[in-house]
Amino acid sequence: MQKKLLNYLSNLMIKTFNKFIGWLDLTQSNEIADNSFTIAKNVFYNNAKQIETRKGYVTFAPELDDVVTSTFFFQRDDTLATMLLVVAGTKMYKYVEWTDTRTEIKSWLTEYEPLYPTQRTRWDFCVYKNIVYMCNWVDNYASYDWTTYTEYASQPKVRYLQYLQDRILAGWDDDNPSTLYYTNAAPTNGNTINGNVVIVWGDEAWKINAITEFWRVILVGKSNKVYTVDVSNQSSIAVDTQSWMRSDRCISNVNNDLMYFNERGIDAMK
How far apart are CA 55 and CA 44, in angstroms? Predict the structure, then answer.
């Protein structure tokens, strides 16, 4: 088998057609159309004279005029089609993989504010019934159904968004930074997130920094404390008075622990 493979590879060579590089099989006709070739991306010959995948960064999709500040990728569970949403400057784009192009789906968004203490308009996303729902704390709560970007001006402008236990949960809007908003279980859609509310521990001075789940328990991280939330009974209980979760994006399950950043570094919940 190895000998046959070596014989086959010996009949291959790299051929250039009008600055287009592709593989040419010399056992076939010498007249092969240019569009029959595919560029071998991100590969090189190693010291053993073998073709190897190059590790590291590669260019992905056309460049944008502005700095990319938020991205979100997911795959549909019905058709397995993929989508990549990118926010750059004041626009949101959808990357189309099969054409290697970006399509603008929304303009006139608020540009990312990187300076402390605001650091606003970094987008958060979740998926429900293959529709992407999104928020950035400043612009209207919105959705994208693969075709249309839709805004819901009547909904709170929240900072964090999660799909947990068949509900969409959201938190931290400027007017009610301690309020956890959430839909009914198995809602028709995610257009309305403020159908139910819980004031997490009634602590208006502290803000919701994170929404997550650990062993089927919904957790809300606030400044200085972490709470469990019972959405059925609209109640919350403090579980750790010595720590807090810094951000919804700084949480990860590691083995049987939930690890997250706080003001001191990394903490874990067991």
Answer: 10
Q: Whole-model pTM? A: 0.74
Q: What is the largest CA-CA distance in the chain?
A: 77
Structure token digits, residue 179: 């309020």
The pLDDT tens digits for 67-114 are: 888 999 988 888 888 889 999 999 999 987 777 788 999 999 998 887
Share the mean pLDDT of the chain.
81
* Amino acid residing at 135: C
Cross-sheet strand order for the sheet of 217-222: 208-214, 217-222, 225-230, 235-240
- d(C-alpha 12, C-alpha 228), whole Å: 62
DSSP for the chain reads -HHHHHHHHHTEEEEEETTEEEEEETTS-S---GGG----TTEEE-TTS-EEEPPS----S---SS-EEEEEEEE-SSS--EEEEEEETTEEEEEETTTTEEEEEE-SPPPP--STTT-----EEEEETTEEEEE-SSSPEEEE-SS-EEEETTS---SEEEEETTEEEEEEETTEEEEEEEPPSS-S-SS---SEEEEGGG-TTS-EEEEEEETTEEEEEETTEEEEEETTTTEEEEEESS-----TTSEEEETTEEEEE-SSSEEEE-
Question: What is the sign of the dihedral through the CA atoms of 50, 53, 59 and 62?
Answer: positive
Peptide bond between residue 177 and the one before it cis (omega within 30 degrees of 0):
no
